[in-house]
């Protein structure tokens, strides 16, 4: 009869593994780097983000009022965007009662020029925020309007007299000059406009599509007004025709709602779990591998094997690796909790719907199962590698294919799920034990049938049992065989447990 | 009752027989020398006793039961290839191995500190192994094998790599363990240590036992060599297998080197000479040394060692 597992020795080995990893500087660096990166990320993003509005100069030599039309349209678009954002904010935090008649308290339509005029007449954003702040509960963040995207600047002297090719040369010279007041976009409307409807646009950087579309919209309206006037239609009639627009009623889901947005929100935690599982597995597996390589290279194994069964040594290493992984996740989770608490409503408001798909006791049990099973399944591969190699450089040869085998499908899986796709590839990944833990965890957000979860979990458990038997044999047979690379044939013999 | 009993032990690695029908017993308090060249099967036998590898056939009984890690609490083992965790302190290392052998942490710590004090390392108990000299680390490793006061202490080539001071310390520890009743087995191919320490010896060659017995029995296994000076032709004396003439002196005296027949006692030949009025001016008896026995029975260390290579796979 085979002797049973010696729990005391397994725990002793696990404790030593944990101590060894905790003494590594790389562990602490890795443990802290994620929270620090998350904390510093927004700061860097703010620093790197170009919040400065783009300076636009319109040179209208046709004698018309195209410049004013352009400025007015951009201003209207900014106001419409602001109104939309304010409306979403009010709806997210249920603040409509601040002024139920205000346009920003109504979410059932696409805002028109009339809404914008009403908004401006009521005092604009300042007046709206005053009303909202009066009823805003504690913990709800204040509304922060987005920065203005474009500002219109007067025509620089260099462009006033420039003609033809020289105009372009002067404009490009302005772009190259280190001057914070010089225009970044120059729109030139020629003398013969609208007879010659060609508009020239000089830009320091590739212009945004929305900018060009707005220019086109504004100038098209201006062009049509001039053409209608030329046809003898009174300007008032022409303006009425131009401003005629349908009222579009809109039924939008609340913030965080809607099929795609809801899927994204619901998938945040499951995808993060899958990703963290991969990350912590690779990290703790590598540390465990370093320990195994030390045991081999420092000729420690024979002393150890005189006191402990190879299987107990293997289980101890797996348990140590699992504990370190769980510790990392616990710390990262605690950091996320502290961040959520520190930022009050913002993150908590996002986290609440994100936690919905993973908050039932059954799902929590499933997460724990697939998390631990995934850890054991993959860590056992690292243990096997550690048993066969004498140095980390030798280990790299085995590590690379294992990493690719795990990382590539998981990266693909995360992208597929973010795209809302649950096609046959996701189904296949669910049922291949190597990828089952990551796939099931990642699919929790988009929904997975219970029978799939139970079936793939049972298959995974069976595969792990078989894997542990095979790797246990390989581990036992490989431990004392140092100084030579095992051939493929020899590895198969060890997996089969061929005596020798 | 014997502490270790090995009976008809065989270990094959593919087509190579590493240990071939080996039997021996080791009693409490006995110091048992396991002698043989490289690849003779010494380490393979010790690994089978420790249950690190399994025999092809034959039986092993350690303290009355089959090899098992449950016996670890009664066994101390010092492997030939030595090493410890570089990042662990000396005392933590000893406690770790003590606990793996089933000791309580406090007991292992107290015993570990006693050993470190005895090895003049008490002041370095909290030092990491990586910060110690090789000699210090070897003493810590010896302490890991002694921490549990083992009933069976097995040392595989324990003297290799030790400086003379540490060799002396190790000899003292072997004798100390024997005095408290432990059975001690050590493998070596350095004959001086075996001659000084062993109560009983086993010589192995290619996995087969070539000799087992006491030091005297080993030396008696080879015929003694005698140097004699006489006027008579000594080649005809009863019990002399072969006689070589040496220097001939002017007054008729002749030096002889005598090789006796197997099992003939040199004293009996001397007695025969006296009773037959053979005048002798010199009678020097040279008994075989353990080195002579080793070379005769085991031969020179093989350059190529297929068994060791196979065992390492």
UniProtKB/TrEMBL annotation, chain A:
Keyword Transmembrane helix listed: yes
Transmembrane segments: 268-289, 318-342, 362-385, 397-418, 424-442, 454-475
Signal peptide: none
Pfam family, one: ABC2_membrane_3
Keywords: Membrane, Transmembrane, Transmembrane helix
Localization annotation: Membrane
Membrane topology: Multi-pass membrane protein
Coiled-coil ranges per UniProt: none
Membrane among keywords: yes
Domain ABC-2 type transporter transmembrane: 25-465
Name listed for the protein in its UniProt record: ABC transporter permease
From TrEMBL, chain B:
Keyword Cell inner membrane: no
Keywords, in A-Z order: ATP-binding, Nodulation, Nucleotide-binding, Transport
Pfam families: ABC_tran (PF00005)
Ranges where the ABC transporter domain occurs: 4-231
Superkingdom of this protein's organism: Bacteria
Alphabetical list of InterPro entries matching this protein: AAA+_ATPase, ABC_transporter-like_ATP-bd, ABC_transporter-like_CS, ABC_transporter_ATP-binding, P-loop_NTPase
Keyword ATP-binding recorded: yes
GO terms, molecular function: ATP binding
Family statement: Belongs to the ABC transporter superfamily.
The name this protein goes by in its record: ATP-binding cassette domain-containing protein
Protein species of origin: Qipengyuania qiaonensis
């Amino acid at each position: 009869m085979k002797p049973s597992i010696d729990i005391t020795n397994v725990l002793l080995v696990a404790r030593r593994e944990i101590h060894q990893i905790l003494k590594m500087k790389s562990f602490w660096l890795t443990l802290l780097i994620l929270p620090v990166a998350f904390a510093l990320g927004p700061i860097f993003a703010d620093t790197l983000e170009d919040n400065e509005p783009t300076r636009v100069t319109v040179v209208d030599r046709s004698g018309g009022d195209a410049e004013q039309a352009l400025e007015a349209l951009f201003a209207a678009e900014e106001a419409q965007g602001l109104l939309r954002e304010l409306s979403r904010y009010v709806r997210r935090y249920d603040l409509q009662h601040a002024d139920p008649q205000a346009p920003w308290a109504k979410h059932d339509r696409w805002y028109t020029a009339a809404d914008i005029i009403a908004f401006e007449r009521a005092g604009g954003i300042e007046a709206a925020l005053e009303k909202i702040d009066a009823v805003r509960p504690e913990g709800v963040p204040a509304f922060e309007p987005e920065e203005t995207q474009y500002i219109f600047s007067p025509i620089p002297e260099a462009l006033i007299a420039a003609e033809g090719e020289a105009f372009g040369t002067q404009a490009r010279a302005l772009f190259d000059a280190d001057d914070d007041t010089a225009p970044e976009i120059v729109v030139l409307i020629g003398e013969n406009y609208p007879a010659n409807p060609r508009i020239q646009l000089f830009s320091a950087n590739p212009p945004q599509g929305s900018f060009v579309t707005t220019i086109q919209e504004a100038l098209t309206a201006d062009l049509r007004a001039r053409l209608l006037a030329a046809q003898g239609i009174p300007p008032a009639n022409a303006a009425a025709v131009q401003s005629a627009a349908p009222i579009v009623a809109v039924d939008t889901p609340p913030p965080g709602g809607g099929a795609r947005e809801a899927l994204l929100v619901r998938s945040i935690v499951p995808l993060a779990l899958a990703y963290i599982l991969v990350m912590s597995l690779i990290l703790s597996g590598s540390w465990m591998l370093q320990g195994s390589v030390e045991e081999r290279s420092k000729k420690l194994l024979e002393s150890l094997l005189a006191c402990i069964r190879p299987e107990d040594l293997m289980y101890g290493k797996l348990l140590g690796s699992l504990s370190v992984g769980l510790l990392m996740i616990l710390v990262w989770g605690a950091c996320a909790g502290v961040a959520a608490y520190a930022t009050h409503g913002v993150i908590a408001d996002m986290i609440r719907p994100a936690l919905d798909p993973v908050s039932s006791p059954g799902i929590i049990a499933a997460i724990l199962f697939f998390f631990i099973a995934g850890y054991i399944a993959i860590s056992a591969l690292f243990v096997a590698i550690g048993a066969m190699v004498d140095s980390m450089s030798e280990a790299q040869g085995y590590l690379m294919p294992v990493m690719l085998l795990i990382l590539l499908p998981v990266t693909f899986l995360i992208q597929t799920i973010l795209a809302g796709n649950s096609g046959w590839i996701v189904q296949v990944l669910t049922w291949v034990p190597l990828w089952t833990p990551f796939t099931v965890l990642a699919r929790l957000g988009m929904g997975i049938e219970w029978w799939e979860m139970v079936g793939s979990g049972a298959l995974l458990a069976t595969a792990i049992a078989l894997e542990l038997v095979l790797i246990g044999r390989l581990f036992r047979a490989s431990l004392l065989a140092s100084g030579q690379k095992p051939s493929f044939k020899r590895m198969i013999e060890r997996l089969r447990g061929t005596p020798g | 009752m014997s502490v270790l009993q090995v009976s008809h032990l065989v270990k094959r690695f593919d087509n190579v027989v590493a240990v071939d029908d080996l039997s021996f017993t080791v009693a409490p308090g006995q110091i048992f020398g396991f002698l043989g060249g490289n690849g003779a099967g010494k380490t393979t036998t010790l690994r089978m006793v420790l249950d690190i590898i399994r025999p092809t056939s034959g039986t092993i009984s350690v303290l009355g039961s089959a090899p098992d890690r449950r016996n670890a609490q009664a066994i101390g083992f010092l492997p030939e290839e030595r090493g410890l965790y570089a990042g662990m302190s000396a005392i933590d290392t000893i406690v770790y191995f003590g606990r793996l052998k089933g000791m309580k942490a406090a007991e292992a710590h107290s015993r570990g500190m006693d050993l470190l004090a005895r090895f003049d390392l008490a002041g370095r108990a909290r030092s990491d192994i990586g910060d110690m000299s090789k000699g210090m680390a070897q003493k810590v490793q010896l302490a890991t094998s002694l921490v549990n006061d083992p009933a069976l202490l097995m040392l595989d080539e324990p003297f290799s790599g030790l400086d003379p001071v540490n060799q002396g310390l190790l000899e003292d520890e072997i004798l100390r363990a024997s005095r408290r009743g432990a059975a001690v087995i050590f493998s070596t191919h350095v004959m001086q240590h075996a001659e000084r320490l062993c109560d009983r010896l086993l010589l192995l060659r290619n996995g087969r036992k070539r000799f087992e017995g006491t030091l005297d029995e080993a030396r008696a296994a080879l015929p003694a060599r005698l140097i004699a000076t006489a006027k008579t032709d000594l080649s005809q004396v009863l019990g002399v297998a072969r006689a070589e003439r040496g220097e001939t002196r002017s007054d008729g005296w002749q030096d002889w080197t005598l090789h006796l027949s197997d099992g003939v006692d040199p004293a009996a030949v001397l007695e025969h000479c006296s009773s037959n009025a053979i005048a002798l001016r010199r009678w020097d008896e040279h008994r075989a040394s353990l080195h002579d026995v080793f070379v005769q029975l085991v031969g020179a260390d093989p350059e190529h060692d297929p068994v060791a290579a196979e065992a390492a796979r």
